[in-house]
Amino acid sequence: MFIINSYFIKREVMKLRDKRSLNSLCEQISELEQRVSSNEDNVDDLTKRVQTLEKENAYLKDKVEDAENRNRSSNLRFIGVPEKSEGRDMIVFMNKMIPLLLGCENFSTMPVIERAHRTPIFGTNAQSAPRPILVKFLHFQDKVKILRVARAKGVLTYSGTRIHIYPDFSAGLVKKRREFDAVKKILRAADIKYSLLYPCTLRVTVDGKPKLFRCPEEADLFVKTLPSSPLI
Fold first, then answer.
1. Looking at residue 204, which CATH number applies to its domain?
2. pLDDT digits over 124-161, tens only?
3. Domain range spanning residue 179?
4. Which of 63, 142, 150, 171 fits a disulfide with 137 by CB distance 3.0 to 4.6 angstroms?
């Protein structure tokens, strides 16, 4: 008869248990790896969908903004006109003020105004500054002509008050155009000719050669390389 060592038996049993536990653990790890891989695939798919939706959303926002600005294409904003100076009829008032402001000799026929009204303003100057007057002209060419004459005349005054005339853009486009303000300030200080083209492209003329910038950062880098730049 053989004497069975109880310790040996226990050890072998433990080995079997450990092996089974290890096999079970390996199976669990394999299952977890499959789940992780599946989740990673799902995340990749969702990421692609989100990126697609973001592109579509940006495209639709651009389309809406473009449509809004096209609708405003015949509009002008008159800034600084004293409150209540228009009386009861804004259109009649603007028909009188425009030739007085820009010169009757510049208008063989008066621009046709469709609508005119004051618009609200917000911010720290909302209580003190007069509200802008928004004017919609029947013909786009009249709006362009008024802007051209206003720029040629330079300083505009009405009843001793400084008046500014601006195109009417959407809030989104105004924000984009303001991103060029810092560069424009440098260009003015350096006496470099520039213009901000519609919708949002900076045109800089150096040595008679124009350069176009759609990105404020690129324009800023270019301006800083110019010999006449105050930042050099």
1. 3.30.250.20
2. 555 678 999 999 999 999 999 999 999 999 999 998 99
3. 174-224
4. 142
